[in-house]
Sequence to fold (144 residues):
Amino acid sequence: MTLAQIVHAVLYVHPPHTLLVHFPIALISVGLFLILLALWLKKDIFEQIAFADLALAAVSTIVTGIVGIRDNLVFYGGQAPNHNTKIIVASTLFVVTAVTAIIRWKKPELFHASGKWLYVAAYFVSFAFVTVLGFLGGVILFGT
Fold:
């Protein structure tokens, strides 16, 4: 198989969004698990990894969203079911993850401060948004 055939297969035979979407899902899910583990075991290392997961989730949400918009245009003629809702929810997910990661980056002691519960709640909110996005993606692939 030539490089051109591989690029064609990745970009035009199978929507790459379907592959990339698993990165924010996994990062946010593991981040939530680790922040809960950090609370339970009182181990900072779990919170630090959860923070890294959340920061990576923000970046991967942007990449996944761009590829999703492209796939909607290429594979669905811009008319995938619920595409506007997915764009709104994904944009909100990006804002929540990015703002949370930036605040935590600027305040490394946040996990031990009085705002800890808002910080932890952001993981739950992010998980809720990524779950809704996954459901809406399933509607696009498999119908209602």
Q: What stands out?
A: The mean pLDDT is 94. Residues 17-142 form one domain. Residues 1 and 88 are 39 Å apart (CA to CA). DSSP finds six helices and no strands in the chain.
